[in-house]
Every structure is written in structure tokens, then in C-alpha cells.
Amino acid sequence: MFDSDPIIVGLEIGTSKVCAMVGEVGSNGALNIIGVGQARSRGVRKGEIADAAKAVEDVRNAIVDAEQQADVEVRSVYLGVTGGHVRGFTNRGMHPVASADREIAAEDVADAIKNAKVINLPAENTPLHAIRQHFLVDGQPGVIDPVGMLAARLEVDMHVVHGNAHRFQNPIRLIKGLPLDVEDIAFNGLGSALALLSHDQKQMGALVIDIGGGTTEYVVYSGGIIRHTGVLAVGGDHVSNDLAYGLKVPLRRAEDLKIQHGSALTSDADKGQTLPLTGEPGLHTKTINLEHLRRIMALRLEELFEIIAAELSQAGLLNYLCAGVFICGGGARIPGIDQLATRIFDMPATLGRASSVSGLKSALDQPEFATAAGLVKYGASQHRKRDGDGFVNAIRKRVQIFFGRA
């Protein structure tokens, strides 16, 4: 099918759900979401494939759902990836300016960036993203475009997101077996940040926390660039597990209690309140202490936020988050989650909405769709680069890494 307006599909294979979102790039370059498909996820644990047969069926169902709503045929996707193996760090590359007049040329910039991408990773790991931050000219930081400046030494900082190559391959192989093409892969946390943050918020400094079923991704923007990324293999499922253990109820019942009566906060109003829990036929009815339920949830979520806050404090980033904290993912639906984050991070926290993308408002207003919306936005940006050599080289390299051919 050949359309005048390119179709971009973002695919998130999450622990709780599979979501396929279809976007259309208009002739003016504007991105519009025209369809969303989703299915319950049964073959994923902690953000990674655990049962390929179930996962491929769930992906197929989500894709078909998206095709029917958007009235298009999906042939390729931009695939989101995550997992406890994903890491991010900043690497600095240096290049001496060798010209006689010491004027920095475009070739010097290219060499500095190339040197910054030379990183010492574990043998099984591969870079997922290498994102340029800023240049340093003879030690002067914060330079955006150094071409034409005079210097003896040019440096550049790159934020590198990397992970286990084989574990990235598993969802790629699953998608290709449908069969669909994988245009590119992207870190889920990056997708969420792209969907939620405006240009001004990226400049001011913001923390995006995406609480999914099996993982929590977080991304820090400041000065318009990515400063920090991370993944914790902890999500909403762990809250349910805590409730099942603490309340001595089956996991399925714990999940229901979390959704129907859960909160990230406790209050005096909870004291003394109980919830009748109807047992299976032949069993006695049990009561659950509401304060106990919410305290269990609050302690797990507090720990989650405190781990992130401690990491960002160590990196010296907390004072740069002037726009505050933005929470998305299914965990954003827990009542009081924004108030808890406000207390832990000591700054304003709000529930994120995919405001940087237009289209189906009913989907974009739901925090659990932020990743898929951001993957569509990421795909649209990559589509705009298709005519550039940089994009071609990046795709060629990604093909060599993940598909084993030139």
C-alpha cells in the first residue's frame, strides 16, 4: 500500500499490555495519531520476552486491532525495548585541532563524536543510543556549535544507552516472525520522555518516570538534552506481589485490591476501615485492613522513588529539575502517586500526558500509552532523516548488530 502520508507505528511489548500505536505524518510534517491497538500481555516478564508463543499472539492481536482502527496495513514498526540489563552513562570524546590556524572544522567535530562513541562495554553488550549532549572547546563547556571557533582541543559528551545484544534480539526476532519489519529499536524511557515533555520543559529540566508492570524507566532532561537514563526491574507487579504476601491473598485478588482500593498514601481516615473479601465457595469470608493495604503499597512506591532520587542526587542532577517530575505508565493511575513523588523529590510532580503528539485524545490522555506515542514520535523523527547519510549509516550499523548482515 502506497500512501502520500507516511505511516509510522510504535510498538511497546510491555509486561502488562502490548500496545501498537499508528501515526500519520502529514505533508506539513505534523504527526497525527490515527489508531491504537492493545492486548493483554501474557508472555513478558520484567519487560522482556519470557514466553515467545504467547507474546507473538498478543503482538498480532494488538497489531490487528490498530490496523482496524486506523484503516491501514501495518508492515513495519518502531520497537520499544527495556529490561534490567539496560544502562546509560555519559562518555567524553576528545580530538586535537590540528589545523595551522586552529580553527575547528566540521571534520574535527565528526572526529570528536566518533571518539566519544568508542566505549568499553561488556562483550555481550551493544549501544542502543549515542546521544550528543554538548561540546567543550579548550575546556569551555556548553558549546552547541563549535565550527569556526579557535581551539587546540575539542571535546564532546555523549550519553550512551546500551544493553545485552541478545536480549535486544529476542523481541526483534519475534516481530520478524509475524512477519513485520523492524525499522529501528528505541529505549522505552526515551519514548515516554519524547511524548510527555515540551521543548520548554526539556530546557528547564524534567524527570520522567514511567512505572510499568515489570519495570520502571526514568529519563532526565536538562538544558534541552538528555542527562541521565535508567531502568529498575520493579513495577506495578511487584506492588501486587507485596500485597499478596502481606495480606495473605492470591495474587489475582491482590491485583484487584490494588486497582479498586489502592493508594500511594495513607491517611488517618484509613484507620479502622476494613474490606470484606468474599472467599471461594465453601470458604469463610475474610476482611482486609484498608490501612495495612495502603501502607504496603506506600512503602514499595516510596522505596522506588527513593532509589531514583538517590541516584540523581549522586549524579548532581536534582537541582536542575525546574520543571519537576512527570509520571506515566500504568502506575500513574495509583491514587496519590503524584503527591508521594512531590514529597520524595521535594519538587512538583504531575501525571504526564502525551501532549507533544496530536490525534486520538482518548488514547493520548491515558498515561499508560505514553511510551507507544513516544515511539511513534521517535519514528517520525527518524523518517525525516531518511535522506541523510547519517541515518543510512546508523541503520546499516544497526542491521549489522542485530541481523548479522551488511
Summarize the structure in short.
With 406 residues, this protein is of the alpha/beta class. It is built from twelve helices and 19 strands.
List keywords for this structure.
406 residues; 6-stranded mixed beta sheet; alpha/beta; globular
Write the layout of secondary structure elements.
Layout: E1 7-13, E2 17-25, E3 31-40, E4 44-45, E5 48-49, H1 52-70, E6 76-81, E7 87-96, H2 106-116, E8 125-137, E9 140-143, E10 153-164, H3 165-176, E11 181-187, H4 188-196, H5 199-204, E12 206-211, E13 216-222, E14 225-232, H6 236-247, H7 251-261, E15 274-277, E16 286-289, H8 290-314, E17 324-328, H9 337-345, E18 349-351, E19 358-359, H10 361-364, H11 370-384, H12 389-403
Parallel strand pairs: 1-6, 3-19, 6-11, 12-17, 17-18
Antiparallel strand pairs: 1-2, 2-3, 4-5, 7-10, 8-9, 8-10, 12-13, 13-14, 15-16
Helix pairs in contact: 4-11, 6-7, 6-8, 8-9
Task: Walk me through the structure.
- The chain has 406 residues and is of the alpha/beta class.
- Among the domains are: 76 residues, Dna Ligase, domain 1, CATH 3.30.1490; 155 residues, Nucleotidyltransferase, domain 5 (2-Layer Sandwich), CATH 3.30.420.
- It is built from twelve helices and 19 strands.
- The strands form five sheets. Strands 11-6-1-2-3-19 form a six-stranded mixed sheet, sandwiched between helices.
- β1 and β2 form a beta hairpin.
- It is globular, with a radius of gyration of 23 Å.
